[in-house]
Amino acid sequence: MDTRFAPEDIAFRDEVAEFFDSAYDTDIEARLSSFDAAVFKPAIIEWQKRLYERGWIAPGWPKEYGGTGWDATKAFIFESERASRGIPEVIPFGLKMVGPVIYTFGSDEQKERFLPRILSSDEWWCQGYSEPGAGSDLASLKTRAVREGDEYVVNGAKIWTTYAQLADWIFCLVRTSSEGKKQEGISFLLIDMKSPGIKVNPIVSIDAKHSLNEVEFNDVRVPVANRIGEENRGWTYAKALLAHERTAIAGVADSKRGVEVVRQYASAEVNGGTRLIDEPLFQKRLSDLEIELMALEFTELRVLASVASGDAPGAESSMLKIKGTEIQQQVQELAMEVAAYYQGVLPGGPEPDVLGNSLGPKAFKNYMYGRAATIYGGSNEVQRNIIAKAVLGL
Amino acid sequence: MDTRFAPEDIAFRDEVAEFFDSAYDTDIEARLSSFDAAVFKPAIIEWQKRLYERGWIAPGWPKEYGGTGWDATKAFIFESERASRGIPEVIPFGLKMVGPVIYTFGSDEQKERFLPRILSSDEWWCQGYSEPGAGSDLASLKTRAVREGDEYVVNGAKIWTTYAQLADWIFCLVRTSSEGKKQEGISFLLIDMKSPGIKVNPIVSIDAKHSLNEVEFNDVRVPVANRIGEENRGWTYAKALLAHERTAIAGVADSKRGVEVVRQYASAEVNGGTRLIDEPLFQKRLSDLEIELMALEFTELRVLASVASGDAPGAESSMLKIKGTEIQQQVQELAMEVAAYYQGVLPGGPEPDVLGNSLGPKAFKNYMYGRAATIYGGSNEVQRNIIAKAVLGL
Amino acid sequence: MNFDFTEEQVMLRDSVARYVQDDYDWDTRVAIANSETGMDLTKWQTFAELGWLSIPFAEEHGGFGGGAVDVMLVMEELGKGLVLEPYLATVLLYGGLLHKGGNSELQAAYIPAIIDGSCLGAFAYLERQSRFELADVKTTASASDGGYMLNGEKVVVFNGASADQLIVSARTSGEQSDEHGITLFLLPADADGIERVSYRMMDGQVVANIVLKDVKVDAGHVVGELDNGFALMTAVVMDANIALSAEAIGIMAQLNSKTVEYTRTREQFGVALGKFQALQHRMVDTFMSYEQAKSLLYRAVCALTDDAEDEVQAIHALRVMIDKAGKHIFGEAIQLHGGMGITDELDIGHYAKRLMMINTTFGNGDYHQAKFNAVRYN
Amino acid sequence: MNFDFTEEQVMLRDSVARYVQDDYDWDTRVAIANSETGMDLTKWQTFAELGWLSIPFAEEHGGFGGGAVDVMLVMEELGKGLVLEPYLATVLLYGGLLHKGGNSELQAAYIPAIIDGSCLGAFAYLERQSRFELADVKTTASASDGGYMLNGEKVVVFNGASADQLIVSARTSGEQSDEHGITLFLLPADADGIERVSYRMMDGQVVANIVLKDVKVDAGHVVGELDNGFALMTAVVMDANIALSAEAIGIMAQLNSKTVEYTRTREQFGVALGKFQALQHRMVDTFMSYEQAKSLLYRAVCALTDDAEDEVQAIHALRVMIDKAGKHIFGEAIQLHGGMGITDELDIGHYAKRLMMINTTFGNGDYHQAKFNAVRYN
């Protein structure tokens, strides 16, 4: 048992730090944090291209497909260095979701067609899993794909699709058969968002912003060549991806950064002559959280180490998802407490110097949108069901 | 809306206080807190007789049967004055459980035979509801009573019977028919503990003491005249009693006393020069609890007020049971925290002056036996089911 | 000892409840929240006609002479509808200060205009640095020409954008955080030297930052005593804490019943959500949180009415519980509504946001718990 | 970075696990707990033969030269069996002080007797008034005849009743709570002037209060430096905190798996308890509590092994989590076992009691959280 970094790890850390410090400049930082898609979309692509050119866009991918081939330690170091600077994660739909499905289950043609443009961020992906009315019961999906010659004709609707309005492609679970269990008869399709018959309806979310959408499919024609793997086996491919997604969702490094921001503001915030960071009740709240986070960091490392030694991420990833999102929400809540009256200020209101506060709108946005974390990616209730069954055998 | 005491209530409070201050002397106090049944049983009877002679043994009973006829305010005052002095509650099995069943559903002969001796504490009662293997599923009981002429022949076993080893009588739910739903076919019997065929097997509980028992019935003959009400209707009588029991179980006044004891000890306990009562983390723990208790006190008053105005104690009593027992356990836990190392000292060990502490063994006993409160009287899980169904309509 | 309401109180409650149900439905509320001022003056006029604006004031000024119970009942029902009009700011804060502290000329001159709905008011107490400490006041009022000259800045002033009249806390002596030396001044919101920057908060209300530059106030417009404004504002804020808690209770009732209703009808895995035992038990817990919070509301109202010695403790305890129960209840409401819970379209998120604003107004849970601890254990 | 154990460590762990399973079954454990001394010396001798008593000591004294990982593995498995023999008191506290602070003569004279099982030891640090503060020492040691004379009282001394040798903290200078001025003394438990009152604790162990009246100790029996005993005892207690936490982790593992197993077989309302979703979710939560606590155990062990700068924080954090997770886990274990959970007969309650004793030893959760906060935020 040893958590010390080897000398080559330390050298790697320095290399990563150096890259981030120069590549993540104040210009890109400002554009990335804009609320305007016309500003942040090109900024995201530009930032991801910098990572791509450095060869670091896909730490989780195998080397042969353009991944880094890092071990768990290096991946951990990279994440820590990224998050500690407040650098946002890459948009996950291509790089963390559909990419691994394509290189694991896709045909050679699909790999050749799609993987390079995912890596280079030249194509923006979104995810079509959830459906109106289905909620956490993913497998009950009703969007139907009927085979006609070399094409499927797709009809139905997907919901909660993040950034569908910006995407070039969508990966979808669709029903190709209604026989057998509901998990059977599902296929995994890659669909061009420019296809006729696709309509994107915006959903304004609780943070008063538009990032979610409903995507309607009306007689959308999709080449059979865009199906991943076999017909009616899509659930299997999706499940492999879900465990992967849940591991990524723990967000330990980002929560650590969030705690750091809370600490900074709480050190500046004064109430009746006492700094907030010195208030015992605040300290308790903060250390309750920090201690859970210290634990979760090692829980994640333990899971990663076991994955690295060959185990597939199993039901343990459900734990990372539950604890990770709960802690994340608590960090966001604490930022709201620090912001006090200003927690209610909406993003896009007066500038901080006029307002008297810069934490408020940021805290509001993170907190509000963060409510979704315990709901999406398989709600935390569903994750608890998974653990009860798969780990506890109940 | 008014919670002030009227002048006659204040006079009543003084009267109660005066009685308790003189009747509850140090001699009876010491004997009541003994761990030895040979000491505490006569002490309990003696103490209850003092209440009886004062006319205050049965505040909840109607006047015609020997009750006090108090309104909710007077009952509240009486409870507060009792608990604030650390005076134990009366043994509930006769006075709070079977008594109300007898005066509500019993025959005139039964009322005449049993009620006076319950009031005078000349007969000690215990409760035969739970059965080995049945747990919270009370209605699944298997103890069977077969009619033979003017008698029932009872066979089976009851468990968790508090003080069965001290009791003269037991009230039992027994199965008299196996037709229909399991709630049907149950009868309510009063059984003399001296009947041939009754065997009491002690159960040592987690506090290392013997108060619980298993009671076996082997061909025990019970006169039909000892059945309450109709055959096969026992569940109805028992249910009425259960709601009553749950209201009584909230124990607000006793929890307030418990908090007071915690405060006293925490004011004397010093850690590194700081009194425990001044430690911010301890204060938070204590005030979390006190605030919940302040609320529960009014929740109970609200329920009592609605009962007084004619509503039967319904599913709200389940809430009093859940919150009351949860808070009670938290008070007991806090006492353990205050006792620190001494929390582990067993009752009956060295005297406090030798030991260095007087809180330890008391805290241990209360805490340990207190674990049962969320389990008995219908477990808190069952109470939550009741509220979900009866109050929320789920 | 009883928890009954008088016939008059029941009528008042039912009148507000009926109005909210019939004339303040969700679409109406959304339209008001999206309007420039975040309120509807015609609604306000109706409130006046229904007599709600007169409740806490003395009969000699045309008031209803109501007490804490009446205010509680009104606020609870307004909370159920997420009513946006500035009852707290105008009637309870601005009006409360005049009622409790104004001299008879000020009362006679300004209270009737509150009651008839012609004057909106605001209380400007918060400053950039003051967080939850009412005594942390840097705005100055210096004697000048037999009156005073005010300089400084107030932030997040509820109803600050629409108010016709302001009461402003300013320092007439003492150091930044001294309780002594604070004086309250009544002045028109369009007085010379006042600049307002307004912005909308998450709960739909429009607030303002107010900069005061050499603003003149004459000596007759001091509300309460010179240098002793702190006690007056504390008293009014303590009352407001109960009123805000009542509003929160109304909101929690809505969140709980809407969530139970949603899970009763919404199916997943072929079963209504409300049939899942794990969710049932969680909804029982939110039900109990609501009942416990309501009990402390009653306790605080009774303590205030009875002038009980534990009044201050009861109010701090109430605010601690409102914070705790509120977070518990809106957290579960959003979670159990799933994806729908995080849309702007559904009312759930808006109820949550109003609870969050309440929980930060006049101190959050930690603040009130620290005060409770200080009073009780020190 | 890896979480693997060496082959040697795996063998050690398996050896303890096998012993506990085969030779320390529940009936055996109950009999030992009910015996007068609350331990079994023949078992202890087996521990010696298996080499467990030698683990933390240097090879030059016949030790195994093991580290924190080895101790963790042993304690975790001992915890699973609720083993009563005084490993903590003799090997980790008494032995730990000698190992870390004894001069070479003392080490050579006393460590071999620990390793071969012939000497039981105890560390007498606690006093009536000291609660969790190691520096709160009123027992005095005054210079006398080239040695020292000890007077005072120590309470709740683990293994105090059976120990052959004691190490006692006493004040050689300074005031009651000063860290400076504390000296540790090694002395036979039957020295003249020592009186012991022994009593049994809830977890079955027999402890003692020890009164010292003019007890003579020669100068060569000072462990560590004169007046500087505090740093030494703190270092040993910090190690012991990790070891106790490992024991707690073993206990929690047992409680969780026994509870899951019970609910899988026990039926109510015609269904296995484990099929009720509300209970399933609660057992998932206890599972996660266990995993989180285990992670902090690993973190603290790694910090200790690596001599990391956040070692002290990691240990305090660990103890906070052990307290929290422990209460959560044993609380649910008792509750889900229903009536059976509150019997003395079932093992569940005994696991709970040992966790409770651990949670109060060297500071409870609040104590460690206050220390954590002080280190981290001040």
Automatic annotation (TrEMBL), chains A, B:
Domain Acyl-CoA oxidase/dehydrogenase middle: 126-220
Sorted UniProt keywords: FAD, Flavoprotein, Oxidoreductase
Pfam families hit by this protein: Acyl-CoA_dh_1, Acyl-CoA_dh_M, Acyl-CoA_dh_N
A GO MF term: oxidoreductase activity, acting on the CH-CH group of donors
The keyword Flavoprotein appears for this protein: yes
GO cellular component, one term: plasma membrane
Statement: the UniProt record of this protein carries the keyword Coiled coil: no
Cofactor(s) this protein requires: FAD
Domain Acyl-CoA dehydrogenase/oxidase N-terminal: 8-121
Acyl-CoA dehydrogenase/oxidase C-terminal domain sequence ranges: 232-392
PANTHER family according to UniProt: ACYL-COA DEHYDROGENASE, ACYL-COA DEHYDROGENASE FADE29
Protein name: Pimeloyl-CoA dehydrogenase large subunit
Species for this entry: Seongchinamella unica
UniProtKB/TrEMBL annotation, chains C, D:
Pfam families tied to this protein: Acyl-CoA_dh_1, Acyl-CoA_dh_M, Acyl-CoA_dh_N
Keywords for this protein: FAD, Flavoprotein, Oxidoreductase
Ranges for domain Acyl-CoA dehydrogenase/oxidase C-terminal: 228-367
Alphabetical list of InterPro entries matching this protein: Acyl-CoA_Oxase/DH_mid-dom (IPR006091), Acyl-CoA_Oxase/DH_mid-dom_sf (IPR046373), AcylCo_DH-like_C (IPR036250), AcylCo_DH/oxidase_C (IPR009075), AcylCoA_DH/ox_N (IPR013786), AcylCoA_DH/ox_N_sf (IPR037069), AcylCoA_DH/oxidase_NM_dom_sf (IPR009100)
Family assignment from sequence similarity: Belongs to the acyl-CoA dehydrogenase family.
Cofactor list: FAD
Protein name from the UniProt record: Pimeloyl-CoA dehydrogenase small subunit
Gene Ontology MF terms: acyl-CoA dehydrogenase activity; flavin adenine dinucleotide binding
Acyl-CoA oxidase/dehydrogenase middle domain: residues covered: 122-213
Domain (Acyl-CoA dehydrogenase/oxidase N-terminal) ranges: 6-117
